[in-house]
């Protein structure tokens, strides 16, 4: 029932597009990776090794929530290990989304 007062406008629902799983990298993500590669090149530390880590196979509890923190911890320990042996590191990483298939 209306009392004659104007109806307040409905707020537009804003989606958080960054949290929607996608099958590809965005243009912004690609630009960030190219910038990181250029920075590593300028430092003389061109990345030349690839490493794939599958957190769900490794027994990580709730990989969707803990993958970023686990990756940061891994990279920190790897950097410390390399630096203790007199080396320098540069890394570029991409966290891939977990895909859910519906049949």
Task: Report the sheet with the most strands, covering strand number, pairing sense and barrel closure.
Answer: none
What are the segments in which pLDDT stays under 50 over at least 5 consecutive residues?
none
Q: How far is the N terminus from the C terminus?
A: 45 Å
Number of helices: 2
Tell me the helix content. Answer: 25-40%
Based on helices, strands and strand pairing, what is the structural class?
mainly alpha
* Radius of gyration (Å): 21 Å
Count the strands? Answer: 0
Short description:
This protein has 103 residues and is mainly α. It has a domain at 22-84.
Q: How would you characterize the overall build of this protein?
A:
It is elongated, with a radius of gyration of 21 Å. The protein has a domain at 22-84. Helices cover 37% and strands 0% of the residues. The protein starts with 26 loop residues before the first helix and ends in a 19-residue tail after the last helix. With 103 residues, it is mainly alpha-helical.
């Amino acid at each position: 029932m209306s009392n004659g007062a104007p109806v307040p406008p409905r707020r537009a629902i804003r989606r958080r597009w960054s949290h929607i799983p996608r099958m590809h990298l965005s243009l912004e993500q690609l630009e960030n990776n190219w910038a990181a590669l250029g920075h590593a090149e300028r430092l003389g530390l061109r990345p030349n090794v690839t490493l794939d880590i599958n957190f769900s196979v490794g027994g990580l509890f709730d990989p969707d929530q803990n993958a970023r923190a686990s990756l940061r911890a891994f990279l920190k320990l790897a950097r410390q290990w390399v630096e203790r042996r007199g080396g320098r590191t540069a890394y570029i990483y991409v966290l891939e989304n977990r895909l859910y298939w519906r049949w």
